[in-house]
Amino acid sequence: MSHEPHQPTDEEIEGSRGFCATLGRRGTRSTLSPEIEDFGHLTKGATVAWVDYVIDDFEKDAVEAAGKAGFSEQLVKKLLLDVKGNYEDLDTELGILVPAVHVDGYEANVEPLLILLRNNLLLTIHTHRRTRFYQMRRYAEKYLRKLTKGNRTDMITLLLARIIEENNSWNFEQLLEIEERTEDLTMALKDDNEVQSGVGDQVYAMKHALMRYLSALWGTADTLSNLRYGDAELVSDKPEILERIVTLHNEVHQQLGLAENLSDVLATGLESLKSIYNNQLQDRNNQLQDLNNTLQSRNNLLQEKNNQLQDLNNALSERNNILSEHNNQLTAKNNRLTMLGAFLAILGAGFIVPNTIATVFSQTNIFVFSPSDAWWYLTLIVTSTAATLAIVYLWVKRIGLLPNISGDEAEE
Question: For a disulfide at 205, which of 39, 106, 236, 311, Cβ 3.0-4.6 Å?
Fold first, then answer.
């Protein structure tokens, strides 16, 4: 019972790390494998074979992957010396490095694409952005079936031109990504002449991306020029086949012209942006200067009012000092009057007792005095007066009824 070979799905073709398509006496065949060495038995007996292999890191994996496919370490290392574009012919094997551009937003990432030729084998090595050769993988068998005319060198050269064309087409599409971003920037610049925050950074990033893109295209153009005039043994020398290389070279130069025109447009946009920024900065500077003048005028008014308030405060302080002086004078006079009243009260109280004694002894119908009684009577009067004055003074002073008079008040 026969079994039909498994036909890989589109998802399997796109997701596989390794892909191999061969053209032999029995027709074409394609297969998938994560290991590049699994394709060795297919490529040995094929008339033309194409192996497309995805690696993660060129520095770590490129030499090893190429070595497993039968290519020398020397060839790969020489090619990787210039990732913008390179060409190496070692007679029995040929290596080409062309840049693969991936534009993501305002960033242009340039990665190498290795194309290695040896006898009947064409090997392409690139990174995980495998969608670049997704269509090539799908229709590889159909394309190989068309390579039935000419010798093996002619067929391998046509296959090489087709792969370079596919890479160039992808690179050319990246310029459209950059142009779409320029439309967004143009709308931002037209927004009432107001530059939004970050537009300047975006223009700079786009300019940088475009420079990387132009550098990649120049590397591709130089590589194609070397391929066209390299006279390599592994490349066909038929004019009609080399014309394909010439066409690819011309297409790259046309794309360079478009990219340079876009670069000029961005340069003009940068100048316009700079002019807008300068005008806005000048307007804001004038506004700040007007605001500063207004604040200075208000500060002067506040200073003037502060001086007036200071003068008023000084006048109030002076009046307060005068009032305090008058109050001190009134306090001194009040103390004097209080002292006078206290002394009068003491004197009045001091004479009450002798007056009372004199009144009592003046009753002649009760008390009869002779001249000999005058001495003790007078002594009694004087003694009682003095004792009363002393007792009343001490009592008044003890309870605090006598005011304290300072030396200045006493002098006044």
Answer: 106
Q: What token pair was written down for 307?
A: 């001086």
| Domains defined along the chain, listed by start | 10-237 (3.30.460.20), 333-411 (no CATH)
Six token digits for residue 277: 């920024």
Distances (CA, A) of 174 to 90, 103, 360: 33, 6, 140
What Cα–Cα distance (Å) separates residue 396 from each residue in 339, 349, 387, 392?
Answer: 11, 11, 14, 6
Strand ranges of the sheet holding 94-104, from the earlier edge strand across to the other edge:
27-33, 18-24, 48-54, 121-126, 107-118, 94-104, 86-89
Pairing of the two strands 121-126 and 48-54: parallel
Q: What are phi and psi of 236, to 5 degrees?
A: -65, 150
- pTM: predicted TM-score of the whole model, two decimal places: 0.64
Q: What is the 3-state secondary structure (H, E, C) of the chain?
A: CCCCCCCCCHHHHHHCCEEEEEEECCEEEEEEECCHHHHHHHHHCCCEEEEEEECCCHHHHHHHHHHHCCCCHHHHHHHCCCCCCEEEECCCCEEEEEEEEEEECCEEEEEEEEEEEECCEEEEEECCCHHHHHHHHHCHHHHHHCCCCCCHHHHHHHHHHHHHHHHHHHHHHHHHHHHHHHHHHHHHHCCCCCCCCCHHHHHHHHHHHHHHHHHHHHHHHHHHHHHHHCCCCCCCCCHHHHHHHHHHHHHHHHHHHHHHHHHHHHHHHHHHHHHHHHHHHHHHHHHHHHHHHHHHHHHHHHHHHHHHHHHHHHHHHHHHHHHHHHHHHHHHHHHHHHHHHHHHHHHHHHHHHHHHHHHHHCCCCCCCCCHHHHHHHHHHHHHHHHHHHHHHHHHHHHCCCCCCCCHHHHHC
